[in-house]
Fold this sequence. Notes:
Elements: H1 10-17, E1 24-31, E2 36-43, E3 48-53, H2 62-65, H3 68-71, H4 73-77, E4 81-86, H5 101-126, E5 132-136, H6 138-149, E6 156-160, H7 166-170, H8 176-180, H9 183-186, H10 195-200, E7 204-209, H11 216-232, E8 237-240, H12 249-259
Parallel strand pairs: 3-4, 3-5, 5-6, 6-7, 7-8
Antiparallel strand pairs: 1-2, 2-4
Amino acid sequence: xxxxxxxxxxxxxxxxxxxxxxxxxxxxxxxxxxxxxxxxxxxxxxxxxxxxxxxxxxxxxxxxxxxxxxxxxxxxxxxxxxxxxxxxxxxxxxxxxxxxxxxxxxxxxxxxxxxxxxxxxxxxxxxxxxxxxxxxxxxxxxxxxxxxxxxxxxxxxxxxxxxxxxxxxxxxxxxxxxxxxxxxxxxxxxxxxxxxxxxxxxxxxxxxxxxxxxxxxxxxxxxxxxxxxxxxxxxxxxxxxxxxxxxxxxxxxxxxxxxxxxxxx
Length: 265
């Protein structure tokens, strides 16, 4: 179910030919957390910074290649938002079933620290505002993990079509490292007086999935998170779109245009 479809990078080339002034940069950063170079695409010159995770196994050109930058171009060009798209290491963590699970979990933890300790400071050096974190499919998982572990770094989260169940990727295996990256596990055990709960309720939490093709696991796991949020007194908007809404880019275009303006006020 974790897939990419038709590419749309030529749409940005068309906008450039029409006189678009969108700022577009590719930044390279050596990650000491991951011991490798990582890349980050920047679109726009200002506005609300959006830290965006690609779909599973994809890299920083993902949003451009599959048309999301084009579909958000008016928001980007008018200064409502500035988009920062990171690389992933999913092919070493969430994806490779059959690899050593402890190594996979450790790689995810290293990636989490790359995001919060290296990528976020880089974004803040370019845009002083606190970012919103977002993603679709596997990117939604990363967005939720990152936000719920470090709500002090973000003004909110928009997560679309995630599957928030570590067992789905690790076949029921668990250790402490993976537990820390499993919101469906650690959130129920969070004490009612934990300071993060108060902070969650000062932020905007938006999780959405459709109920059409390839969204079955997303519906199941989002219903579970919705229940946990309610039990913990966490104000989260868990939105379930119709039975014609599939796990695919055309619906994510529409959902992003629907939800992002809640952060532009």
